Amino acid sequence: MKCPARCTSYWDLEDRTRADDPAMMPAVDQVRVVIHPETVHRHAY
After folding, report:
1. Number of domains in the chain
2. Which of 25, 32, 36, 37 is the one with CA 20 to 30 A from 19?
3. Chain mean position to CA 38
């Protein structure tokens, strides 16, 4: 199975029950939610 480089970080491709998940993702409709904060506070330590 061809898999993007990062999918091996999130999926154990040796686990047969989850190995096909990355390949099925492009076939499923997905919704992307982007949250833009009004203000950002950064703290220096």
Report:
1. 1
2. 32
3. 25
Q: What is the dihedral of CA 32, 14, 6, 25, to 10 degrees?
A: -30
Dump the DSSP string for 12-45. -TT-TTTTTHHHHGGGS---------S-------
Cα separation of 3 and 31, whole Å? 21
* pTM as predicted: 0.32
Please give the single-letter amino acid code of residue 30.
Q
Domain of residue 8: give its range: 1-45
Token pair 């220096």 is at which residue?
44
* DSSP summary character for residue 5: T
